[in-house]
Amino acid sequence: MTSDHDPAAEGAEVPVLAVENLSVRFRMRGGRDIAAVTDARFSVAPGECLALVGESGCGKSVLASALLGLLPGNAETTGSAVLGGDTDLLTADERTLARTVRGRRIGLVPQSPAAHLTPVRTVRAQVEESLRELTGVRGSALGKAALVAAARAAFPEGHLDRYPHELSGGLAQRAATALALIGDAPLLLADEPTTGLDRDLVERTVDELRRHTDEGRALLIITHDLAAAERIADRVAVMYAGRIVEIADAAPFFGAPGPRHPYARGLLDALPERDFAPIPGMPPELGALPDGCAFAARCAYADARCTDERPAFASDLACHHAPTGRTHPLKEAADA
Amino acid sequence: MLELTRITAGYDRRDPVVREVSLHVAAGEAVGLLGPSGCGKSTLAKVAALLHRPDAGTVTLDGTVVRGWRHRAPREQRTAVGVVFQQPRLSADPRLSLRELIAQPLRSTGRRRDVPERVAELAPLVGLSEELLERRPHAVSDGQLQRACLARALVLEPRLLICDEMTAMLDASTTAALVAVVERYRSESGAALLAVGHDRVLLERWCDRTVRWGERTAGSERVAVG
Q: Which of A197, A266, A273 sits opposite B173 (nearest CB)?
């Protein structure tokens, strides 16, 4: 899917986004702590799509909010998330985020476009407003620029004068994507962009996002839809109970030899086109995580070590078992 | 079990969403109804669940023609059907604990005394712990809330279960878990199922047969005209 003459290929050494040891804690009343994200580490390069997958409530969306500086007041973040090699999103002040980052350096494709768009204004009005704010286009050029902006996200010209409630789910999604693309941000952040859409629309939406990635943007897509992730991603990061437990190239992850982490394997095996067998039990509460591996209680391979000791994230994997090569060779071995 | 004959339904009589649709679900059968977003399949599911009165056509439940919808439906018909919707947040009263949510159908049919026993039976079946049962919807995930909504649909032991995009918001593992709960209930009770959705792979794996919206099926059965 990636084009051979990638215009951004030479800049590939500097990741668009480099996240190191990112943790988010929510301080709750009564001194309780919710560990929503713990020690997340990943990077996204230009022209690359990283899919962050996991069950609902595993901390995926909190991570997205942290990157945009949109966490509520009781959240505490540690670690770093460096955008374009110069701006740490976790320490940047609100003024910097509002004036230079959101929309300009990170475009957000939201979870429910119908709720993201302003209900009382037409799509054209919203596109033109974003153009004025982000690109400085004024006056008579604005109308033309709006058409171009709409066309980039394949939003039909004839629907520009409609209000959000008059759009179907797919068109609302495209309108939101058009707005996200206006600032020409090098990083697109798509938070569950396909929730509630039917299969055809899911495929169209992710194919369009892939197209924008192939133009040289980096895309971080957060989703629980494994089929959508398989269709679009270059790499996959699996999140469980606030931690990234595995990062893998998409092709071996979805094909052979498959995921290395037992949780990731369980998630894929739950698909109706595979075993359709659920992972037993439910994820632990983020406010009461066990001392050992958070997945141990649901894992068929768990032993005493798993319940006592938290596995470190090494070689893109956080599991006591896989490094012994029980099921799959290590990534380095496969690459050699 | 359920017979929908030439149903026309919608929210504006001049422009119905569903036109002359027929569908048949035999006793104990699992039928999947497939269709794209916005085709009217949820409206049809509401008609079948006795929650939306059609403009024309007849609904027959267990051989009895349905004459009233919503509160006008007789209790024995209303309680024969259990429904699970797509969005658990929109179908759960935020003021109720999950325990009370599950118990609600028992209370509104005067079976208050059965509450402790039925909730204790159903909670482990859908995978809800005692601790989760005490929480209110804002304090649980979508998947956990949908588990409670499924338990609520099963609490009166319906003979027909209608699942309208029950798993569209959920991850793969929770989807498989909830489908397993439905199938276990059906194998024990012999209940029929109408599962509405857009995921072909899921419905073909789950149901005895699937019917595509807008497609003519065997016999005179016909699902919608475009």
A: A266
